[in-house]
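In response to reviewer comment 3 from the previous cycle, which asked for concrete evidence that the modeling workflow produces usable outputs, we include below a single protein chain processed end to end. The sequence was submitted unchanged, and the resulting structure tokens are shown without manual editing.
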Amino acid sequence: MIFFNTTTLEFKSKSFSVFIETNSIFYKPGQEVKIRILSFSADLKPYTSTLDIQVMDPRGNLIEQWQEEIAELGVVSNAFQLSDNPPLGDWSIKVKLHQQLHYQTFTVTHYVLPKFEVLLSLPTHHTMKTGLLEGTVTARYTYGMKVRGKLTVSLHYNSFHLKKNNITKHFEINGVSKFSFTDLELKKLMRYEDKNRESLTFGGPVDVVVMVTEDLTGISLNETSSVYVVDKEYFIEFYNYPTVLKPTLNFTAYLKIQRYDGKDLTTEERRNKVSVTVTQSKMFFTDGMFNVISEGENDIELQQFLTYLVPKNNEIKFEIPLYADTAHLKIKAEFLDSVNSIDVDDVFASTSKMYLHIENTNHNVKVGVPFTFEVKSNIPLEAIKYLIVSRGDIVYFGLENSTSPTLIPQNSWTPEACLIVYHVMNNGTILSDVTTLTVHPNFENKISVSWNKVQTNPFDKVSLTINVTEPNSMVGLSVLDKSVMLLGDRQEITTKRVSDELRDYNTINTMRVTSPQQVFERCNIGVLTDAILEKEDEFDLFYVTDVKTYPRSDFLPTWNSVDFGGSRIRSYFPETWIWENIETRRQTSLQIDKVVPDTITTWITKAFVISENLGFGILETPVKLESFQPFFVSLSLPSYVTRGEQFVLKIVVFNYLEEDTEVSVTLDQSDAFEIHLSFIHPNRSQHTVLVPSQEGKTVFFPIKPIQLGEIPITVKATSFLASDAVTEKLIVKAEGIEHSFSQTLLLELINNKPQMISKSLNFTFPPDVVSGSEKAFITVVGDIIGPSAAKLHSLVQLPYGCGEQNMVRFAPIVFIMEYLTNTRQPNEHAPQLISYMKEGYQRELIYQREDGSFSAFGNDDPAGSTWLSAFVLRCFLKARQFILVDPVILHDTLTWLLTHQKKNGEFWEPGRIINTQLQGGNYSPVTLTAYIMSALIEYPGLLNSSQITAATNYLESQMNEVISDNYTLSLVTYALSLVGRNKAKEGLDLLNRRAEQNGDLRFWKSNIQRAPGWWQPSSVDIEVASYVLMSHVIQNRVSEGVAVMKWLSQQRNHFGGFSSTQDTVVALQAMSSFASKYSNSKPALHVSVEGNQTNSPSFRINSENYMMLQSKQIEVGKDINITIRAEGAGFAILQLHIIYNVRNSESQRARRSAASKDSFDLDVTVKDNIETLNSVTLNVCTRNAEIESNAPTGMAVLQVDLLSGFSLAPDGINLKYPIKKVETVDDKVNIYIDSLNQTEFCLNIPTTRSSNVGYTQDAFVSIIDYYEPGRRSVRNYNSEVMKTLSPCSFCKDECDTCLDGNHASQPSNGHCFCLLLFILCALFL
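The workflow returned the following structure tokens.
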């Protein structure tokens, strides 16, 4: 054997990249979502394969899918249409390629595209010694013209020890406006005291918030930036220096001198010298610790005092010779009022004291551009060897007879490369060094695009020329409205995104290099050699604390890439104009002809290209096409309104012609809305207005929508000089309060023979249903837990803003994953589910207290909760097989729980139990002990512990007496089943005897009062059935539990969950554990739906899609009478989900009467004033109304729907007991209340106007027992002022013909006759 050596290799399977881009980040209902997928390998060549694409809504329903799509040159494009009423929220796109999953999200919501943008120009730093803090605000429409309006500039300062402070100023703006704040104002803002400042450093970030309010529409847009305020003028910065010392070599460092305000240094300032103090000293090791010798006269090897003049480029280079025994280097620099220093303490490991060092002044290089680096050593070097490592491969290597080699970077080096230089001495010792290069790409595949015009008119014909480098290329082309870009990042394919993805192939370690071996380890290079490759001394590992060094640029590489006749009615306003994949075939240049859409905007053109030989390339700088006409009309619409309300339609006429012009503005009439003007033409309504040159004028039309859905609104503007017309759409929602209802059928054809069954489903809408609001859906899935597995992020309709409620987004995923794992089903969703689990795990840790316990609101609560801590512990323990759970967290929670167990085994609650069921009267300690014990059993090694034995004995002692409460008995039975005690069988038998039977369904019924119309069973009934079902599974009495499973599976809502969080979590745990034992053959079913609707949807369920929830909407009439037919073999769950609105009733306004069965008293008082139309305050009072129970409720949630046109005031709601948390979601405010008793609790909810809506419809306030949602009360309310407020109030003198009242005038012959008579009289006069 010549030599023996070992090394560890890391295998990385990443071999291709996938990019998913959509044409927007936000979509409205009814819009088309365009999707493009690009895949290429590590060398940027197209990765051609088949892939699967799925689109899922926020509830996890599979809405669209494409399977085995062929990627032409690595590119696939598809699109799908959103329905008119899709679930709002975050949707996801999943792409599966070779068993690897890739995700992208987009949001469906109601929004209005911004019509102008606001830019804020501000220095990054401001010094108190240079006078004014100045900034510039630019506001321009998306088509480039100036915005005229009001500018508000606010400075906000917040420090750790002072309250937040702010200063606000107001300005006028016409496209551009400058603003300034004096030093005196800044000192007042930051509470600056000009005393003893010599010894204190003053400074901090100041947030600058600017708001531009457009004069014509009143629309406001914000922009925020920050400036760091300091009390110094200059700062000096060290950069590009080593972080380890190589004695006897020169230590090279650079110093940059700058002004904080970014201005150049003046000639006078340059006359001041930079003072530099260099200190070299020793360090010794003793008693297992490093000790720095005090820098006294006898200990300092060398102290140099240097001075430098400031060169023109403001950069100074130091060359400091290091002594042979130097172990600590300190460099301190001073210039005027600025001081900075660096300390370097590590010494590069070398027994021979021979070193090699790369000196490279340029760490940012570009492909194809030569660069030179210099290698220095304290021994003569005749030749050096080098390696270039990038994306996990050695991409280049060589031998140079020069110590200043020149290299030419290649595309294979991007985006980041390791440069290793080494030399083997005659005695076998390896000298080496490493540096990191950031390599900017220069894609071989070039693409350029150009329009034949820079500016054009709407509806003009234009041509786009595309040039590529080689034939048979694929071009991904997109042309989007600039307004879409202002919405946010849509994860488009850009140079930066590609570079970030390529960086994932890298294996460069971000470690400090202190030995020759670490040089290679830094680049993830394994070395097998018989040469001497020194390692770091073992004691050096201790020396990692208090190292005041700053990494040089080669240790933190960055890539600052650039992401680059009569008037025709304008009715085509696409947010995406062009979204195409273009095959160039044999051409390298092609032209496409298009007609410009009607939008007045700037169109942003982006493109990428990919081909077999040259791979990927991208258009570095987007190309713009300005679509503009000097005279046009623009509409300002809300995102939606409620039927019955009225709002002011703002129409802005822009005149960029050279002269003033009189314009007639006409709003076309429609059956979808009424125009509220005192006189209207039989076919249209008209205003005449004089619009000055280079300005705009606003015209108001009060309208009342009367049809639901999307309604078109057409406006025309005509003058002698020009004309324009536009049509836009408005969404109108139904009035009233939303109700839902679900019915479930179990389709069981399970004798392994083809069969046919037929069942009926019927539903009659209530008489007070809101016409047009009725919707019905059919869902089908071939698995017991399928309805819930498909909707894991929306199982519960209630808000979840506390520690326990957050677990509804964590625990069900754990149980579903357990089920899929135990049944060995393929789980392509596993990566996403695990990702959700990790998010839920991290989110839940927010609610852990310092003592290891968990509570509803974490450290904000006075004590931890044993119940919640046990719940979290159980879920975390089960999640360990899927994600990393910190064992310290588990141990701390367990330790805290065990400190709350009495000697007799009973657990007690130090805090307040927020779950109503666990309060349980006389059985509360028993119920709580059973609950906690069932969680602790999951902890490894605790099953046979004294604590579990004591708890078991305690529960068995309670079983000696009859437990009358089914909830407590079911929990005790479940806990004893887990430890295999005989009392568990007795408890289960007793529960089965107490059960109610309805055909083949078995369940338990409590006497808990529920709100009228609440169709779901009580949450406690769900939990009882769930614990009983799990006891059947544990005791191997699965067949007896079938009837319970059937009842449970029929109680789910249309979100896949139940009423609340606890019943949903426990029920899903029970159903998943049951389903793991209760095997069904894979289905082969055809299900059809027949009835009085014209469409008859059908579904096929087979072994490929049985876990997929299929959903289709059906037509509805006054009643729903449908017949479900199923043919084939297998098992499926079919659900009919109905959603509708119910009209408001006067009884809902009043307080609870003596005869009312509401669980809560609820009273809503509206404080309004005709003098203040922009604010309304709600006074809400509530209390527990169940007189027979003196106990307080568990956690309650007050849900407040705000009046249209209003939002929660910035000052919000005071957080004082019993209010625990306030959150705003869309137009709702959720207020979490710790508990309610029979003492009335009142609070004020201040709201402010956000849009001009008149004749507001009723809104609703609900008070809900969170853990028993059937216990709720609902009241509708309105403002006496706002519900009678005419929209005329908002435009005042601007619409003097506005009609007050809630009925529009209709055109009549009388009006026409009067007008004709008036004209004739005028002629005779």
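The chain has a mean pLDDT of 80. We consider this sufficient to address the reviewer's concern, and the full set will be provided in the supplementary archive.
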